[in-house]
């Protein structure tokens, strides 16, 4: 009898361990399926580009599509400028990369497309006083789509390299608007003269802008110190400032 009871208890332990193992396998499988779940693209700018589902977080760390959309809107002027026909597809492939249940990670852009977009749009950014964003560093993306790395090469690039467009007639009109010939430039998207951006352009010169930055910084520091002193005075003797 004791031997039979020992064998029965051993069999019960084996059955229980098998059930627990099955539950763990099912749970792990469920987690894997959840990780592979793709979400529909809800950003209007990135709809209709050849794929309609994505997976967050994206390639720059955004967890929500609303955060990605907010960052994408900062590139709207560059997209409207039209420096590259691949620009919108490239940005969407970074901020809402393609998702498929056949690959465990989101599929972003190829480095070749990034270099093509950068080659054409970087001069535009430099013309307005900006640099290429570090989060779009082309070395972060696979060089090309092959059996080692999957990436999107995007639509064909048929645009010629960007060259600053000069409109002699319109440029003369813009030069006549300001006190200096380089204050205004002709913008083809709006068909009007627009103030140049940057410290060395616009209505005020670099010296005045640097002085304004320093002036505002000094007053900001003084306001911070006075506010800190007020808060410390209240904390040291709050009874003096009783609410009426």
Please tell me about this protein's structure.
With about 240 residues, the chain is mainly α. The protein is built from 7 helices and 4 strands; from the N terminus they run αββαααααββα. It has helices at about 1-35, 65-70, 75-80, 85-95, 110-125, 170-175, 205-235, and strands at about 40, 55, 185, 190-195. Strands 1-2 form a two-stranded antiparallel sheet. Strands 3-4 form a two-stranded antiparallel ribbon. The chain is flat and about 70 Å long. Residues about 1-35 have low confidence and may be disordered.
Give a summary of the structure in a few sentences.
This protein has 244 residues and is mainly alpha-helical.
Query: How many strands?
Result: 4
β content, as a range? under 5%
Output mean pLDDT. 77
Segments where pLDDT lies below 50 for 5+ residues? 1-34
Number of helical elements: 7
Question: What value does the Rg take, in angstroms?
Answer: 30 Å
> What is the straight-line distance between the termini?
86 Å
Short descriptors:
244 residues, 5% strand, flat, two-stranded antiparallel ribbon, 4 strands, mainly alpha
Give the SSE map.
Elements: H1 2-35, E1 39-40, E2 53-54, H2 65-72, H3 76-81, H4 87-95, H5 111-127, H6 168-175, E3 184-187, E4 192-195, H7 206-236
Antiparallel strand pairs: 1-2, 3-4
